[in-house]
Amino acid sequence: MKIKSLLGLLLGACASYLAPAALRAQDLGPHFTKIKDGIYVQTAKSTPQANSNASIVLTTEGVVLIDTGQTAIDTRELADAVKKLTAQPVRFSIDTETHPDHTYGHFMFPSAVIIGHEGGGEEMRQSFDPKRTAEQSKSSPELQAAMDGFRLITPQIEYAGDKMTLYVGERTFVLYSLGTTHSLANSAVWLPNERVLWGGAVAIEKQINTIRPHTNIPDMLAVMKMMTALNPEVVIPAHGPPTTTKMFADYSAYLETLLARVAALMKEGKSLDQIKQELKMPEYEDLAGAKERIPNNIEAAYRAIKAGYVPGS
Ligand SMILES: [Zn+2]
Asked: How confident is the model at residue 22, as a pLDDT?
């Protein structure tokens, strides 16, 4: 009798924990992929440049989100998925970067403490334009309805330096600073026990990204090397479907090729304008964003070489 009731208790406890995880990813809707038990990614919408990922990590002590959706419509879907998976609250939400397509969904998770790298909140406040946000929300009645109650929420916790570790329930989250390699405050999120890595926006697959004036290509190469060395099984990029470290290898190869070609033209005494006209990247021209963004990437490569970077070093 004693054993039986103990067994019943144990089974009950297991069932209450396992029941949410047993929910199939397809029950959450077409945008969700189950990565591992209790780890789900809302990912890859139809348009290649509007496909920010947002992730749900269940723990025995509540939910941790990583980014909060491309638009408020996506965020609402994310919040609904959390409710289907667990009755527990969202405890933390980690920002991999500061841009609106990763952070403007925070307002739908009032129980969450937002965590980002140092300076992230400041960048978000500086770039926030309430008029523009209100205007954009009018693009569809559905979006306008989802934006109801919107307010800018910036990180309550900002960590400084290279990394911080967050322990929630049975899980360990290691946040690694990715410096200013995309926005002014970027983090990778590493789950060492599950071997899942959120790699931020330093690299993306099948498209070329903008390299802003505050970003150095050598820093991008360095953080991709650091993330590759973690040896993750799965890499969740800022945009696009879950992948592997091959994404870092491919993006690094693109940047190395760009640097080498820019350096060669600089050696011939060409100006930045001449290089922008002459330099060709035929292997990459078919990628999304290539036409508009390669000139901007050439500028970044030019800056790096001017500052002393030696390609292939
Ligand atoms: Zn971004």
From this structure: 57
**Residue 151: predicted pLDDT:** 96
Query: Counting every residue, how long is the chain?
Result: 313
297 contact partners, CB below 8 Å, separation of at least 6 = 208, 211, 255, 258
> If residue 36 lies in a helix (H) or strand (E), which one and from where to where?
strand 32-36
Contact 166, 192 (CB under 8 A): no
Distance (Å) from CA 183 to ligand 1 centroid: 6
Given pLDDT bands bounded at 50, 70 and 90, which one contains residue 43? Answer: confident
Report the separation in Å between the CA atom of 13 and the middle of ligand 1, taken as the mean of its atom positions. Answer: 41
Q: What is the pLDDT of residues 162-219, one digit of tens each?
A: 999 999 999 999 999 999 999 999 999 999 999 999 999 999 998 999 999 999 999 9
CA 53 to ligand 1 centroid distance, Å = 11
Pairing of strands 157-159, 163-168: unpaired
DSSP characters for 149-215?
T------SEEE-SSEEEEEETTEEEEEEE-TTSSSSS-EEEEETTTTEEE-TTS--SSBPPP--TT-
Distance 42 CA to ligand 1 centre (A): 17
